């Protein structure tokens, strides 16, 4: 049975005071989370230690929003996977569409980051998804096939490492225009079939979460689909009431 994930991507937002207030308002120690539910937040890097201290012994795990494709060394401004582990991270987002579009993260770099994260025993959350133009042109599956192949095609893997895929249609991110559960399910099913090309039947054990305007009001309907294993939540992860309600939906 696959875990169900609620992942909160805070993006480049927040101050110490705002983050403390947000965490104070979340049900950090709820014992009501079901045993296969996983909740994690992805704060901006300067606040990882602050959040880690606050989350210690809570039900919420910690992740980073990106990682370097290089090992520790002379790479000014970058964060190595080992450093994220050292700061208490268990997860890392890889290839978020904002990183792809605004920070030159091409397929080659994204593949490098994914496998560096795996080597350091981080759990990568590989983000894939089509742009509005690609969606309108009907090329969603081709785009996703290429994004997955860039990471997995050359990999000679017998055992799938622990990782998560996040399907995030770019046209749904921050727009309020959530994909319908049926549409998202069709893409998730396609992603699982693509993963089977590399991992065979192990693809059934890999969690695929949906992201793009997820909030408490649509989360449960998305979760009802057989191949939707949770949500990667941006805007609503910054709303304690909404995020708390989504946490409670996993009880
Ligand atoms: P959103 O962002 O929930 O605000 O649409 C999702 C994301 O970028 O991961």
Tell me the layout of helices and strands:
Layout: E1 4-9, H1 16-24, E2 37-42, H2 48-55, E3 60-64, H3 81-86, E4 91-94, H4 97-102, H5 107-119, E5 123-128, H6 132-136, H7 140-152, E6 164-167, H8 181-199, E7 207-211, H9 216-223, E8 230-233, H10 240-249
Parallel strand pairs: 1-2, 1-8, 2-3, 3-4, 4-5, 5-6, 6-7, 7-8
Bound molecules: 2-phosphoglycolic acid.
How would you explain this protein's 3D organization?
The two termini are 16 Å apart. The protein is 39% helix and 16% strand. Strands 1-2-3-4-5-6-7-8 form an eight-stranded parallel beta barrel, surrounded by six helices. With 251 residues, it is an alpha/beta fold. The protein is globular and about 45 Å long. It has helices at 16-24, 48-55, 81-86, 97-102, 107-119, 132-136, 140-152, 181-199, 216-223, 240-249; strands at 4-9, 37-42, 60-64, 91-94, 123-128, 164-167, 207-211, 230-233. α8 (181-199) links the parallel β6 (164-167) and β7. The longest helix has 19 residues, at 181-199. The model has no long low-confidence stretch (mean pLDDT 95). Residues 9, 168, 173-174, 211-214, 232-236 line the site of 2-phosphoglycolic acid.
Number of DSSP E strands: 8
Number of helices: 10
- What separation lies between the terminal Cα atoms? 16 Å
Strand composition percent: 15-25%
What's the overall average pLDDT, rounded?
95
Reading side by side through the largest sheet, how are the strands ordered?
1-2-3-4-5-6-7-8
**Elements, N to C (H/E):** EHEHEHEHHEHHEHEHEH
| Unreliable sequence segments | none
Helical proportion, percent range: 25-40%
Give the oligomeric state of the chains in this entry, treating copies of one chain as homo and distinct chains as hetero.
Answer: single chain
Estimate the global geometry from the Cα principal axes: globular
